[in-house]
Request: fold
Amino acid sequence: MLVATDVCNLSDEKKSILTNKEVLAVHSDPLFIAGERVSKGANGEQVWTRPLSNGDMTALLFNANNQTSLSISVAWTDLGWQTGDMVNVRDMWAQSDLAKTTTGYTAMIAPNDVAMLRLSKA
Reply:
């Protein structure tokens, strides 16, 4: 891992980012398939996905807009799953479960921010 900051004087926020076990597990997943952008909107909204070795998926909802919060969605059909599949949605940064849903997930993302989700079929 490449870190572009002084690791001897990390803030608590930076330390929590670099030591997040759920995010590190995705980084070191043995499937080693790179993320792929599955959608890009006109206002800077992007969805990136990556399959994991256990059948789960990671979705990154990215707002590349510098000024405006955006509503960004991932549909299960974007992942090759069926509408109707029950999926657990987990926020990997907060390490908390967000929802169980059968169609997709939508979040409001601040400018230049991301939501990193782990999606598991129930």
Notes: The chain has two helices and eight strands. The beta strands are 36-40, 45-51, 57-63, 70-75, 87-91, 96-101, 104-109, 114-121.
